[in-house]
């Protein structure tokens, strides 16, 4: 098979981890004998500074033919978030109906949890985040601007279609895991319209899966449980905002966001899916060559899995865990490996 | 001085921890020579089952003359949250303009953190939560009910008055602490109208405090930092929802919500303020006499502080930490003390 993959290194450390990922991908393609057509797109804050927009007007059209997008990170200190993120990242997620943001949390070999006494046996779950609607809407506005009476409103929008499909995906995913356990993140005791609706649809959709063990927690106590009882969780489904929070908190108990991968999935494959590390462009360390490429490698494993090259993905993660297990870690994990040296070690362990 | 205090034990373990609190309060009143007029109100889910409402129509009027309200917990498994919470807890917070929800997080003597190697020196911060507006609004609704086209919307409402006053309180509070450090919880990269407004007002209000060290984090990475770097924080200010999340997560790194206190403050004292443990009614353990009363005792300390009886409050917490420091803990903390036996030990340590 030949895979068409769009690369968007983006900004900051995105420009360091994506090249590392490409190196690894090329080794895997040789070893596992699949074809790779990598096309790089310059869409980024640098592009914005030159062209006044993050990507050309037909940017999404350019990306559409690809089977997958591998994105580094977007954002720069002097570019407003509503420009960088709402001009690139969020439109890709939405326009390509990447309605599942899948974020695994697992304690890798050789990485220790900040939680006392917790081992890999305790930390192994998946956050399934709704990725197109909910709290991230662009509906809202301001009244009485600049006065004491100023009022700002923001609409959250939940739809039957949007809620059901992500919960259904979470059910299917949980059914394929040994524990068959699905947890819903809610806040229906405080957020009076959308969250009771989320609960109602959670009950309705999960009713089709009698073999699934289902429970729900309000987001406040759920974050506490992530710290006190990470072993309670298997698959956790949440709205756009709650999933966002849980998928940074989860990695924090498993070594930090230098490690955390994500897959933005258009499950039906009508549009390209996007794979990206959870971390941002990290301007504070960009250019130093010290970024941790694990989050990108793990995202590549998710991409390979999605493309049908699961053995190659598994080999990649085995190589990563061989290296971390041998004690070679980047700076964010307390080690002294650079992006390059770590990548070379992974490639060395691959072959 | 004579203090008029309204007691609302409420439901579940609220009916166990409030009586424990009353015992302690009465001992303190004798020892520190202040007068106490305690008036108990039956407002609860039990009351609802008899009267069809959580409190009488003039319930708030009945509470208004009091200087403080001490509340246990509200909620029962067979009563909908929108009945129990929106019929009692949330109206009190709102109608009495208790716009600050103050929630200290500190590792008490003898209690260990689930975070490896973290001691009391690392965990000592305050969450200041907006408590009247924001994401907890009752504006919203549903369209195309029961069909595939179903849409549910929910409005978040942020006002200049609401945002400024809680940030200003946080600034004043931080200025009175040695570290003079204030962190804002935001999500302006994803939530496009209200959160950039929050950031804007944070900049405007903190400009009046040049001696304050200010920073901000998006809520997703902030939850990660609470786990990875609890020592980074001093005072953390957040919206109603973000403050709610952080004030369950904070206690999780400091021994759990069995310990966590809160003060719902009407800073100007035009209306009564309310003091309550962060935990809920805990129907799973209610009636067993094993609830941890520390959250209530600590809330009482906050109440005494607010009333002007700081020495009595300090004595109470010293007694609590004497008992925990001697290794006497309730079940939630891995010990075998009951609500009663723990309370007796605290009283024993008081005199
Ligand atoms: C019970 C619920 C509505 C409440 C809240 O979210 O405010 C509780 O979680 C709290 O923190 O006091
Ligand atoms: C950058 C930001 C808009 C984004 C999000 O909140 O979705 C990020 O935090 C993520 O998790 O991918």
From TrEMBL, chains A, B:
SUPFAM superfamilies: Isocitrate/Isopropylmalate dehydrogenase-like (SSF53659)
Alphabetized GO MF terms: D-malate dehydrogenase (decarboxylating) (NAD+) activity; magnesium ion binding; NAD binding
Positions of transmembrane segments: none
Alphabetized UniProt keyword annotations: Manganese, Metal-binding, NAD, Oxidoreductase
Catalytic activity: (R)-malate + NAD(+) = pyruvate + CO2 + NADH
Domain Isopropylmalate dehydrogenase-like: 4-346
UniProt cross-references to Gene3D superfamilies, sorted A to Z: Isopropylmalate Dehydrogenase
Pfam hit, one: Iso_dh
Domain of life, source organism: Bacteria
InterPro entries given in the database record: ICDH/IPMDH (IPR050501), IsoCit/isopropylmalate_DH_CS (IPR019818), IsoPropMal-DH-like_dom (IPR024084), TTC_DH (IPR011829)
Coiled-coil positions: none
EC number: 1.1.1.83
Top EC group: oxidoreductase
Cofactor: Mg(2+); Mn(2+)
Entry's family note: Belongs to the isocitrate and isopropylmalate dehydrogenases family.
NCBIfam families in alphabetical order: PRK08194.1 (NF006048), TTC (TIGR02089)
Protein's name in the database: D-malate dehydrogenase (decarboxylating)
